[in-house]
Amino acid sequence: MTDTRRPTALVFRKRLLAYSETFVANQGYALRRYQPRFVGFELDKRGLHHLDRSDVNVLSDHVSHVGWARLPMRAGFAPPRRWVQSLAATRPAILHAHFLNAVTPAWQLAQALGLPLIATAHGNDIAKPLTPAFRKALAVAFARCDRVIAVSEFIADCLRRAGCPADKLVLHSMGIPLEGLDESPVPADPAVLMVGRFVEKKGIRYLLEAMSQVRAALPEAQLTVIGDGPLRSELQAQAEQLQIRAEFLGVQPPEVVHQRMREARLLAAPSVRTEQDAEGLGMVFLEAQALGRPVVGFASGGIGEAVLADQTGLLCAERDVDTLARNLLRVLQDDALAARLGAAGAQRVRASFDVRAQTQQLEALYDEVRAGRSQA
To answer: CATH homologous superfamily of domain 191-352?
Structure first.
């Protein structure tokens, strides 16, 4: 039920929500002075558990065929009237789109509702080659937004190179919910955990190569991988060929992920930058550190902002498998090092990445944008 005492922030994502996009739901539900209403074209059942269905308003609720209903929008016309009227009844005050490739339909909704528009850039929507066509599309997106949020300095640099106006660019890390993520001692068992989609950007094949070296020096070391994606069968075959003790658990709910983090000695972060994608920041790295787990991986994209090298984890150059293996062994075999990195990570996440504090800053930005629009 709509809370008439608070204005509504419409949180837009084309599909609500991919299983890996917990961060969108977490930020929305951390709002206090605004109430979230999650908006998109249709539901993604794989990630629907992130959301309370009563907080969701999708185009598919109002039309018989989403594809046909979107055709006028693709031609530049306003969104379907019934959808707009339903959203208007929630007293919306601002529209916040996630990922720059969602700006055009989000802007169409914002125009129909008379709302300011904010967009957050996360990674694969900006960290790729700036072809002439892509630059042109980004210029249109930037012009339509009142503000563009970068989740890390790495993403902010990508936006600057793409021509995002300085007066629209805001650096703002999303943060994570800390409830239930209490720090605990690093376990003695040499268990390595990796959490992520099975795509090239996540660099899992480099981790498997490194684990082959780790097991040669520490046979009892074991690897657990949580996630799924197009490379799953290929990576499982690689693990079998390398004779690694690797357990592939598939997609798991947050409570299972967090329990596996508690049981692990460290979290692996082998992400690499590809031609079309890069790690914007990495919420899973923050979650592991909140629990007191060191992170070991590559200094790729925004990882170096989520994990401080030699302070909360060990990072090395991308695709440097030998150094990755050595760093994994260091944390697996050195209790004092593991404890120091884990404690520092937990302290830093609590100080800098609490989603409640970060979302208070976001609400201040909402206020600023609304005030600026009203004075224009």
So the answer is: Glycogen Phosphorylase B; (3.40.50.2000)
